[in-house]
Amino acid sequence: MLDWLQFILAPQVINGLSIGVAVVLMALGLTIIFGLLDVINMAHGEFYALGAYLGYALIASGVSFWFALVFVPLLMVPIGYATERLLIRRVFHSKERHILTLLLTFGLAILLEDGLKLAFGANPLKPEQPISGASEIIGLYFPNYRLFLMAVGVLIIVAVWLTVYRTSLGAMVRAAAFDRHMAASLGVRVSHVYAGTFAFGVALAGISGVLLAPIYSVFPTMGKDFVLIAFSVVIIGGMGSIKGAVLAGLILTQIQAVSSLYISPVWTDPLLFGIMVLVLMVRPQGLFGRLGHG
Amino acid sequence: MKTTSLNLKLALAALGAALSPLAAAQGQPIRIGVVTPLTGTYAGIGQQVKWGLELAAKEINASGGILGRKVDLIYEDEEANPAVATQKAEKLFQVSNVDFLTGTVNSGSTLAVGQVAERNNRLIATTVSFSDAITGEKCSPNVFRVNARAGMQSAALAEWLAKDKPGARVFYLGPDYEMGRSTVAAFKDAAEKKGAKSVGEVFAPLDNKDYSPFFGQIRAARPSVLYTSVAGNDTVRLFTQMNEYGLTKNLTVVGASGTLTSQNLGAIGKAAEGFVTGVGYSPLIDTPENKKFVADFQAMHKALPDLYGADSYGVLYFYKAAAEKAKSTDTDKVRAAMRDIEWMTPQGKKKMRGGDHQAIQDMYAVRVVNGQFTIVAKVPGEAAIGPDSCTRF
Question: Which end of chain A has the least Cβ crowding within 10 Å, N or C?
Fold first, then answer.
């Protein structure tokens, strides 16, 4: 029994945790953009791919992984900002906002994917792992890079949380999400807050791309990888809720990890989407409320 | 009386129709149709098929052609889509009136075009398709295969395994669909017959992100060899993650011939070192015929031939040998000549087995050393060919 806990369950749980952190990183950007702008960003996965490719290109040009890790999200900010100002803004005030922004970002996703294919080719690429080796924990070996990924992931999640809930900037963002007109009349520059928040979500996707590339490799359709599960996490957690995204992300990946000990791995995805359907039936608003409403 | 004369007229007309193209064909080029993917995912394979055929046609035409007639290649793009392939094959048989057809890549296209060939009473040969069914349960009297099938690749790998790692404990990891399950089943069967012990198997979904959830299971089974038939980017992830978890220590990784290719070898890098697979061709085969072939191929196309290029080069010599033995391009005569014929290819002498139209050839086990496939063992054709399971003819 103890052996089973140590050698079968524990590695599964810890591996699940490292995948969970990756999923939460993807879901965070998605849920923040939805919570504030009421826009479902279908191109989120492609921004993740763009981040990974930018990171790969930077590393290939000779800079270190650590530089790329800091520089790529900084590059993604103006890209995200411009996307909001030049594209999303144009259809934002339309009555059909949900449909129009969904189609717009979906089209953008197709353009980005094909653009990456043209620029970098269709074959998979992979940056070298910046941290090699493995460490022993409770008698089991875990790759150092995965441990690093979990630590950085937790840091980013905490930083996002603190920024949104404990700073005046975060207060402005939440105020703009709660009541756009009231916030504007109190002097919040709402349009900048919108563009800035979109850019922030895109930068989060970008940094996830750089962080995950050494494990999951870089290829044009990689955007589809995490985005489906990230969408389900956002829906189950409550669209727009940061707390919901973190909790739902960790719980769902643990369910996947532990259940794959007992069922064929092919069935872990249907299990996950089954849970999503159940949550939608019982609690359509998700586990937690929206940004600014909690 | 009236009916007799009508019958006679019909018979004469039929005879005339049958004779006139034959008469017209004398001295005209022999037309060979090539239905191959020139665009899309398999365009890289189609390119090699085209290059191999072009080199062979150039050589044959320079040395007097086949039966004194020049060879003319007519290309059609099948987009690796069986539905498109059948239309293009129909067009080549009906409109271009080709004598012989080759080039199909996708196993589904080969099977479908085989049926078109049966209806048109013409012969085809594949130089690429791996599926065992083509010369097995779905064999056709009009279809030949000059390349090695999947079962021969497994057999060669199992043969090498038995010699190099006798009594190996093998774990199998395949993608969870038809190709993955059939390759694992075939290799498992071949390896167990050679004394290997199976210690476990797992099937991961296609496009699986993370293989680490399976590593506990693999470790617990304590295998000495891991067989995998994942392909494309799945291979990149599997190898990278196994390396990350230190799973490759004391473990020999072997797999299907499509697992590691020039498309994904670059991204995998060092993690691919030591991988062993069974194939029907390598540019490193150390014979005068192959060295000459590789040099000529490189001079003409500025690229190395792969197994598809080599077998597509060989197929024209196969047709030449058969047509010259039959002294005709007539379907029935050429078919009879093709059965049990021996001919020279870059891989050496091949023999076409009459019972199922599958070429018998030497197979190779190759291993990745410094990012390059090097030959580690040669398995004689007779040891790899397996039983004839075709029952249609």
Answer: N
**Full domain range(s) for residue A185:** 22-133+142-223
End-to-end CA distance of chain B: 42
Residue A250 lies in a domain: no
Residues of B in contact with A134 (CB under 8 A): 244-246
Give residue A294's pLDDT.
Answer: 44
Residue A242, domain member (yes or no)? no
> pLDDT per residue over B253-285, tens digit each?
999 988 988 778 888 988 999 999 999 999 999
Q: For residue B351, report the phi and psi dihedrals to the nearest 5 degrees.
A: -125, 130
Asked if the model's pLDDT at residue B311 lies above 90, the reply is yes
Query: Which residues in A51-179 belong to E strands, given as ranges?
Result: 134-137, 140-143
The beta strands (E) that lie in B305-393 are given as 342-345, 348-352, 359-360, 363-369, 372-379
The Cα angle at residue A203 between residues A44 and A195, in degrees rounded to 5: 85
A212 touches chain B (CB under 8 A): no
Q: Is residue A273 part of a domain?
A: no
Q: Across the interface, do B267 and A12 touch by the CB < 8 Å criterion?
A: no
Ordered structural domains, chain B, with CATH: 12-148+284-361 (3.40.50.2300), 152-279 (3.40.50.2300)
Handedness of CA B333, B338, B341, B345 (dihedral sign): positive
Q: CA-CA distances (angstroms) from residue B123 to B110, B120, B140, B339, B390?
A: 12, 9, 10, 12, 17
Mean pLDDT of A45-52: 96
Q: Is B245 on the interface with A (CB under 8 A)?
A: yes
Q: What DSSP assignment string belongs to A242-278?
A: HHHHHHHHHHHHHHHHHHTTTS-GGGHHHHHHHHHHH
- What is the Cα–Cα distance from A131 to B104, expressed in whole angstroms? 45
Nearest CA in chain A to B262: A123
Asked if B169 and B200 touch (Cβ cutoff 8 Å), the reply is: no
Rg of chain B (C-alpha set): 23
How, if at all, do strands B225-228 and B169-175 pair?
Answer: parallel
Say yes or no for a CB contact (<8 Å) between A217 and B216: no
* Cβ–Cβ contact B248 with A under 8 A: no
Gap between the Cα atoms of B124 and B94, Å rounded: 14
Contacts of B237 in chain A (CB under 8 A): 215-217
**CB contacts, 8 Å: A216 with chain B:** 209-210, 237
Q: How far is CA B5 from the centre of its chain?
A: 52
B214 touches chain A (CB under 8 A): yes
β-bridge mates for residue B342, sequence order: B351
**In this complex, is the C-beta atom of A227 within 8 Å of any C-beta atom belonging to chain B?**
no
Contact B225, B248 (CB under 8 A): no
pLDDT at B44: 81
Assigned domain for A41 exists:
yes
d(CA B382, CA B21): 41
Which residue out of B176, B206, B209, B265 would a mutagenesis test of the A interface target, given it has the greatest number of A Cβ atoms within 10 Å? B209
Which of A12, A18, A214 is closest, CB to CB, to B216? A12
- Whether B322 has a pLDDT exceeding 90, the answer reads yes
Structural domains counted in chain A? 1
Q: Is A225 on the interface with B (CB under 8 A)?
A: yes
Residue B42 confidence class, pLDDT cut points 50, 70, 90: confident
Contact across the interface for A15 and B210, Cβ inside 8 Å:
yes
Residue B29: count other Cβ atoms within 10 Å of its Cβ. 15
What's the mean pLDDT when you consider all of chain B? 90
Which of A15, A18, A48, A147 to substitute to test the interface with B, most B CBs within 10 Å? A15
Task: Name the β-bridge partners of A199.
Answer: none
- Test B209 with A216 for CB contact under 8 angstroms: yes
